[in-house]
Amino acid sequence: PFIIKLSSLLLLTRVAICRYPLGMHEGTIRDEDITASSQWYDSTGPQYREEGDGAWCPAGLLQPEDVQFLQIDLHKLFFITLIGTQGRHARATGKEFARAYRIDYSRNGERWISWKDRQGRQVIQGNIDTYNVVLKDLRPPIIARYIRVIPVTELPMTVCMRVELYGCIWFDGLASYSIPEGGTIAAPGSPIIYLNDSTYDGFQEHLYGGLGQLTDGVLGLDDFTQSHQYRVWPGYDYVGWKNESFSTGSVEMEFQFDRQRNFTSMKVHCNNMFSKGVKIFQKVECLFKPRLIVEWESEPVGVSTILDDKNPSARFVTIPLNQRVGKAVLCRFYFADTWMMISEISFQSGKSPSKVCRGRWGFLFIFFLGTETTSFITSTRIEEKADDSSTSILVGCLVAIILLLLIIIIIILWKQYVQKRLEKSGAVLALIQILSISPSLLPDFSSKGKEDSVQGIRLVFLFLRNDFLKEIKIMSRLKDPNIIRLLGVCVRDDPLCMITEYMENGDLNQFLSQREICSKFPTQIGQAVQYPGSSTASCYSNLLFMATQIASGMKYLASLNFVHRDLATRNCLVGNSYTIKIADFGMSRNLYSGDYYRIQGRAVLPIRWMAWESILLGKFTTASDVWAFGVTLWEMFTLCKEQPYSLLSDEQVIENTGEFFRSQGRQIYLSQTPLCPNSVFDLMLKCWSRDIKDRPTFDIIHYFLVEQMDCNI
């Protein structure tokens, strides 16, 4: 199939997909959202309907020096990539059109900015007749709430226009960023390389209050001297800074957003052409503040990166932001070499709570195994420094505490009610009735509570008792070395819970994301990983070994006609010697909430791992699990440092599945990673075949991976 690689195309994400009409023609944009500086008659006023005389016409003859405009209020920030114009056709009675126009835009309705293309031109060529629609790409795209279309003429004339805007909602919510001015590379005998933000629309003196190349959807090439654009200077796609220009050894950037947000992660596209002294940043620290008028919170989110001196490819670096809440983010990027170059920054976030209380309540669940299975619940208060800068926050905290107490009372009453129901029905489900597990398999408790203490208790809370019992019955029947084992359940008292075997290295996503690539491949499984301090190294053979185990576990499930529906690295657990066991706890963990798309009033779905037929048709089969296995394999060969389709919003991922269904060559595939050999990537592509019959079975996948391991030993 025709493959669009995420790492190499200019318009792979927002610019390529954000081309939806925003509603001037369909009426999504209402009449009250459209205003004009003037109008010839009421019948030529601003309106979305094709009524009256069929277009907006400013009053009188338009003079060359006049500034007449049609203004559109979109009510939120949009990423606008395309504009369409048409003259006053009016069922063949109109004769007026605009030969040229320009665009002003605003994000707050106060400061207006004149759009310019990448060569600095403001005027856009319009129509040459009254009936043809002329579409013009906006390069760079516009991020704005308010748009003004301003007709331009060289001679006095009557002008009429019909307008449509194309784009999509600006989900990042980033309203402005402030950065230091970029540097310049002037090597003898070579052209000068300008690394400034050439499309920045804020205040130019100190680069604050605007947006520019870091949010235009264009990714820089591996060679920073080359560019996607025509007739631009070398280095155009990147903003870059030199280490010696900053005494702190870091570049400080401030990001302000349209509203308070709950941040999941930040993705930064960096150059890594180390042969010319360019590397990704060594580490980053980010501070947050919930409102613009308060001080930065003292506790930063910090992440150190793994430097790569072997692969010069530009790449995304994902920084987890741990669900921190704020309206502004201040990040310090620390140099790893002479130069640091960035071409794109994006944020993933959700809605923040209306009031933020600095204290948090947690619940500790402790289980004891003995002659009886009992549970004790203790609540613990986690104290943090109070922010008394606003009385409203204090009031909000008090209200939240009162609501929490009410919820606790309701839970206690509900628990008593359920207890009585259970006593009447005698519905007690013993461990022996569900599982035939020898008591010797259960871990012993240490009186000292140190190394022998049970750490592997997995809790799954389900409000629907029947669903819970159904799930544990299914799990109790699964007997495979690569499937997590159910050790016990507790259904006598609430909360209902299950206990599974302990996997000391946690889930595969976290395990791999903390590793780095070896300098050479090992000769045997187990020789590839060393432990110098806290860092480790993961190599091709280890990845194959773990992937083979996942394929083996899925092969077993497929033999039972069991469909997993949520196969991903977050649902694979790692034990000693790279032992892998497949589980299904990812959805219940806040850490991976960003991997699931919430459908209003329904469920959450891992759409970035789902086959097109599962998303569009609701069809889940072993073949759809094969698709998810291909994505899981891709995760592993990125060392879980990148979310699948990281530059696409959830809505764009769903739109991309439509392209798979239509199969017209416009679908976007995940790209081959530097660590992934061609043979393994070919397997991934087969897993992502449009037709189910063209996807390999797990038997074939397992056999293939075993052969690859044998070849690598």
Short structural description:
The chain is an alpha+beta fold. The chain has helices at 14-17, 391-425, 431-434, 465-476, 508-513, 540-559, 612-617, 622-637, 650-662, 678-687, 698-712; strands at 4-5, 20-21, 34-36, 70-86, 100-106, 113-114, 124-125, 134-152, 162-169, 174-178, 184-185, 193-194, 239-242, 250-270, 283-289, 301-304, 315-334, 339-351, 360-368, 374-382, 486-490, 497-500, 515-517, 536-538, 572-574, 580-582, 597-598, 604-605, 668-669. It has four domains: 11-169, Jelly Rolls (Sandwich), CATH 2.60.120.260; 174-351, Jelly Rolls (Sandwich), CATH 2.60.120; 358-472, no CATH class; 503-712, Transferase(Phosphotransferase), domain 1, CATH 1.10.510.
Describe the structure.
Its main location: membrane. Residues 18-168 form the F5/8 type C domain. The chain crosses the membrane at residues 361-380, 392-414. GO terms for molecular function: ATP binding; collagen binding; protein tyrosine kinase collagen receptor activity. This protein has helices at residues 14-17, 391-425, 431-434, 465-476, 508-513, 540-559, 612-617, 622-637, 650-662, 678-687, 698-712, and strands at residues 4-5, 20-21, 34-36, 70-86, 100-106, 113-114, 124-125, 134-152, 162-169, 174-178, 184-185, 193-194, 239-242, 250-270, 283-289, 301-304, 315-334, 339-351, 360-368, 374-382, 486-490, 497-500, 515-517, 536-538, 572-574, 580-582, 597-598, 604-605, 668-669. It is α+β, with helices and mostly antiparallel strands. The strands form nine sheets. Strands 2, 3, 4, 5, 6, 7, 8 and 9 form an eight-stranded antiparallel sheet that branches. The protein is globular. A hairpin with a 5-residue loop joins strand 19 (360-368) and strand 20 (374-382). It is built from eleven helices and 29 strands. 20% of the residues lie in helices and 26% in strands. Helix 6 packs antiparallel against helix 8, helix 6 (540-559) packs antiparallel against helix 11 and helix 8 (622-637) packs antiparallel against helix 10.
